[in-house]
Amino acid sequence: MTKGKTLNLDRYNLIGAGFFVSGLACLDLLLVVFCAGFPLLFYLVAGAVGFLVGGKSRTSLVGHGALKKLFKGVALTGCFLGLLSAGTLTLRKPNWNTKCSFRYCGKALSGFSLSQTPYPVGTPNCRGLWLCANEAQMNTAQKAELDRLIEVQGCPIP
Asked: How far apart are CA 67 and CA 111, in angstroms?
């Protein structure tokens, strides 16, 4: 196999992975309305599936000029929209004053985890801390962090 073919295979794999992860990021942005979102583990699985599908699609697109152009356009548009969605989710701060704020409690109290959103959630305000205390399911380490944040921020005990 020549070097050009290896790079071509890698490009299809990477575009496939980017397309699948981008689709998930777009869905994640839309699901904010329904108080839902995807954990980091889903993004990793989508990337792996997209990587495999991208490699498989290479063989079916060889010799099909029009199909290849359509595939390329759809994939690159999806990747671009996914980058915009991921950028929006990364740069905007979640609103801790809504009924959906409880879904951010796990990441705010325990940090990085495969079962939590990959996007930043910021530090909860007093209302957010009360919501976490009343609505979220927490382990002992998260309860200790909640108590520490309540004390540091000077919030009344819920």
From this structure: 44
Residue at 158 is within a domain = no
Task: Mark whether 67 and 19 lie in a shared domain.
Answer: yes
From the number of C-beta atoms within 10 Å of its C-beta (0-12, 13-18, 19+), residue 50 rates as: buried
What is the reported pTM?
Answer: 0.80
Q: Closest Cα to residue 19, out of 73, 96, 76, 103?
A: 76
Q: How many Å apart are CA 114 and CA 21, to the nearest integer?
A: 15
Residues in CB range of 38: below 8 A, 6 or more apart: 24, 27, 28, 31, 117
Q: Measured in whole angstroms, how far is the alpha carbon of residue 94 from the centre of its chain? A: 14
Q: Which domain holds residue 45?
A: 3-91
Q: How long a stretch of residues is the chain? A: 158
Write out pLDDT tens, residues 34-79.
888 899 999 999 999 999 888 787 777 666 677 778 888 888 899 8
Nearest in space to 27 (alpha carbons), one of 19, 37, 35, 18: 37
Distances (CA, A) of 2 to 7, 9, 35: 9, 11, 49
CA distance 156 to 154: 7
Which of 71, 91, 111 terminates a domain? The answer is 91
